[in-house]
Each structure stands twice: as structure tokens, then as C-alpha cells.
Amino acid sequence: MGNLDTPFVSVIIPVFNDSKRLVACLQSLENQTYSKKSYEVIVVDNGSDEEIKSVVLQFSQVVVTEEKAPGSYAARNKGISLAQGDIFAFTDSDCIPHADWIEKGVDNLLGVNNCGLVGGKINIFFKDTTNPTAVELYDSVMAFPQKNYIEGDKFAVSANLFTFRSIFEKVGLFDTEVKSGGDYNWGRRVFAAGYQLIYAPDVCVDHPARSSFKELYKKIVRVIGGQYDLSQNSPLYPSNKFLKLLGRDLIPPFKFSVSILFSGEVNEFDKKIKIIAVRWYVKYTRAWERAKLQFKVSKVRER
Predict the structure, then answer these.
(1) C-beta of residue 158 within 8 angstroms of C-beta of residue 92
(2) What is the pLDDT of residues 74-110, one digit of tens each?
């Protein structure tokens, strides 16, 4: 186990049918700057059709378990139940943590008094850097604004999250009734309990951009479904907020469009137009999916 200088860390990764990208994730975790004696990696297979165990057995730092109840938050809770560390680190099977990810995560967590969680930076990368799709370009601008989540909404996404075992003992586990938004719910509980939430740009993972409208649509359905579940079940997410978000989704994204046109982050005009077009698609697809749930037209969800 770890010591005061290098506390023992349990890295928890849920996976569902993502064995190829899981290999890259585990390879990066095999080569951390943190002492190998001071961390473990727990992979939780959430009912995959693919062979996960044989992938995991290639790596010395990793153990595998299974959670049949569908949902990444149920899988994360299973990992927590087996974890030996006093510090928990969460990432996803499609993420590639930087070599100093654990080291920097622990340093930031221990460096702040009364720290409840540390959320790190999530860098977006393309399949083909020379020819990104419209959806990839959009994701590079909009996906995972972790700093905004932590400072504005008071939560961190679990693709890059560090916390203490004692925080879960204080505020409880992830909500398994939601398929998306469980990290929002949990982070808000941590904040409500009086802990500090820290954004750490030096705690980095790389995450692939979604490359197709099919992948983007699946995310929209999952996120909207999670928000609807929260609006029905969580006192931290009042039901009228879901209706307010529906109204917001119906507002044309003129302000966003103008900001992209004059943005220095994207130089080529055709790329700006692609990003704007995807934004319009996202806004009104979200509104449509939100309305279907609100008015009981559909109960279909993506996991």
C-alpha cells in the first residue's frame, strides 16, 4: 500500500463493448510516473458482448470485475466496492491519461484544504488531424468544458475525476437510477456538503472526438434522458429546470454562430460553417428529444 507521500490510488474504469480503446487506456496507465506499488486499476465490465477479461489480463496493474446492472454509474459503484485506495481516480475506456495523470491528480487533491474533488482537463483529438469531420470540429469546441462545469455548475465529469474514499462515505455513491448526469448529481452533493471543487489543467486525459452524427445523436439522447431522470428524482435538479432547458433549446443559436465566425481558434471559414451547422442540429435535436420525454411520447434511451 501507499504511504503519506504516495497514498494508494484506485483507478476505476467502466467499460461497455470498447475493448480496442480500452487497450490504449490501460497502456497509458501501465506507464505512469506514480509508483507502481501505490496504485491499482479496476476495470468494470458493464455487460459487454466483447471479450474484456482477456484484454485486461495483458496488464499487470489491472484487475477486472463485472457489473450486470446497466449503466456506467452502477459499474463505477461496483469498482468503488472493491477499491483498496484512500484516493479514487475515475476515467473512461476511451480516454488516454497522460503519463503523470495519477501523480498530478494526487498532488492537486492533497494540495487544497477541504478538497472534495479534482476535475482535470480533457483534451479532444481527431481520427484524422488533416481532415476532421464536422462533428469532430464541433466536439473540439464544445465537448467537456471541465473548468466551466466545476466553477459554474459545481461538478466534474467522471472522465477525469479524483476524490477521496471519505467523500463517498460522507455524501454517498453515484446515483444508479440515471444513465447520464450521475456525476452532476454526485458533484452537487459534494459541493452542498461544504467541500471545495478544484479544476486542475495539469491533470490531463485525451479523449477522441465523436466523428459522426450517429455518435452525436446517441450522446444527445443519453444526456437528455439523464437530465429527465434527474428532474424526476433529484432534489438538486428541480423538475421546472427541465422545462427551462427545453425553452432554451428552442432559442436559435445566433450568438454562438456569431462568436464562431469571429473566433480566432478556428481559422478556416468552411470549418466555422460546419461547426455552426452542427450547433443548429444539436440545439433542435435536443429540444425534440426533451419534448418527447416531457410529454411522454418516448421512453427510448441510449445506454
Answers:
(1) yes
(2) 999 999 999 999 999 999 999 999 999 999 999 999 9
96 burial type by CB count under 10 A (0-12 exposed, 13-18 middle, 19+ buried): buried
Q: Are 83 and 10 in contact (CB under 8 A)?
A: yes
Map residue 13 onto helix, strand or coil. Answer: strand
Q: Rounded CA gap, 77 and 276, in Å?
A: 38
Q: Which domain holds residue 54?
A: 9-211
Distances (CA, A) of 104 to 115, 164, 289: 15, 15, 39
Instruction: Report yes or no: 303 and 219 within 8 Å, Cβ to Cβ.
Output: no
116, 231: one domain: no
Runs of H (alpha helix) within 34-148? 53-56, 72-82, 101-110, 134-142, 146-148
Q: What is the pLDDT of residues 126-181, one digit of tens each?
A: 999 899 999 999 999 998 999 999 999 999 999 999 999 999 999 999 998 877 78
The Cα 163–Cα 101 span in angstroms is: 14
Residue 27 lies in a domain: yes
| pLDDT per residue as tens digits for the range 191-215 | 999 999 999 999 999 999 999 999 9
